[in-house]
Amino acid sequence: MSWSLPIFRIAGIQLRIHITFLLLIAWLAFGYYTQGGSAVALSRVIFVLLLFLCVVLHEFGHAFAAKAFGINTPDITLLPIGGVARLERMPEEPVQELIIAVAGPLVNVVIALGLFVAGGSQALLNPSSVEGGGLIAQLLTINIMLVLFNLLPAFPMDLVSLVCSGIHFSFSSRFLFISVPLRKQPWRR
To answer: How many angstroms separate the CA atoms of 60 and 54, rounded?
Structure first.
């Protein structure tokens, strides 16, 4: 993706950060600094970076699941609106597409469960703790929100891949004329 900077490579997958992501971080840091000073700016920017670490892990979930089926992922790009794992090709089998689509949100579920065990359970028992403070509670909440966000019925969210693979898997060739056009959209790499 143009306007993106390579950061590092893991398992042959290049992680890139789009220049607009860096602009977002700078803008947020400035805004937080004007609201509460350097300590507030630092803590909130760290939270945003941890949020995007969860997004990166989500995208690596898709990439590693695809790799298990012999589909390479040349790169993952972080954008202000989230991450994009660019697969070399779409999976041939609907069950493969289903597993690849589920792998990303499943990573967020595992992160959320780990945070819950690590002390985030207070967030569910006391919702005011999420807004008031604890980093673990905030990250637990944001990972649950990431799972729910990826279930929105809009392109290119994971639910669309689940629906397409479900149509293929459930109805085989009878509804091929419906699901193939959905699977071959240019925005689905």
So the answer is: 10
